Amino acid sequence: MIRTPVALIIFNRPDTTERVFQAIRQAQPQKLLVIADGPRIDRPNEAEKCAASRAVIAKVDWECEVLTNYSPINLGCKLRVSSGIDWVFSEVEEAIILEDDCLPAPSFFPFCQALLERYRYDERIMQISGNNFLQDRFNIKLKESYYFSKYGGIWGWASWRRAWKFFDVKMENWNELKMSDLLPSIFDSAAEQNSWTDVFDKVVAGVVDTWDYQWLYARWCQNHLSIVPKSNLVSNIGFRKDATHTKCKTSVSNLEVEDIWHITHPNSMIRNREADCYLFDTHYRSQPQPVTSAWLNKLKQGLLNHI
After folding, report:
1. Number of CB atoms found within 10 A of residue 72's CB
2. Per-residue pLDDT for 304 more than 60?
3. C-alpha torsion sign, points 104, 110, 116, 118
4. pTM of the shown model
């Protein structure tokens, strides 16, 4: 049984919700917090799909405190996930967080729990990720079970209230930071800076309906690190047409997982710059950003300087 609270974010896909729930059921957390968005009124049958997804949670059959935060209306990815995680960290000091399409390996839960405990009071660390996107493409040559990164995926992750307090969904200080001399210190190259400046400009302009870029930005503003496992511990099974963003399969969809049961800790807390640079070149630089109706409308209105 897992002592660490687990948060599950669901919406309108009862089939993937069921698969992720069954993985959580195997871990048997003592506390489960469930976040759900409401149906969109212009989508036929979505209310039924949302209800079916929520019905999965009723299958809890182990000793577990279940807390729910269900929105009666649709808030969208940006506001529903961010407000939901706000609620999670108002209830608990630390949590393991999964979305309804992020299928974890069995060892993901004890891996996160052990590292949440180990780094609970070490403010240099803000996130524990379950993702490793560099498998079979980059030989990290690690003897240890994880490394430190300025990135760190959110398809299965864990963190603390002390870290989430820096999250700002509006990124209100972005324009000030962009004009300062501090911005180049965040990035390893001009290409990386230009790429992420473009992304953050879109986020602040409201043309990208998401929350995870803001979380990455919050970690960078604090100059803090994420933990990345040596092997991938969570597979995103949600790359399909009914997804919010991940509609087309990519090199990181449905990645295989490999358990980490025995954790060997690094001797030093130094960021793996080589891995981060390779990750940017192979994943973030080439990954197209989601195109939303708001983005298209603002483009037509000439409100974007560049895309």
Report:
1. 9
2. no
3. negative
4. 0.89
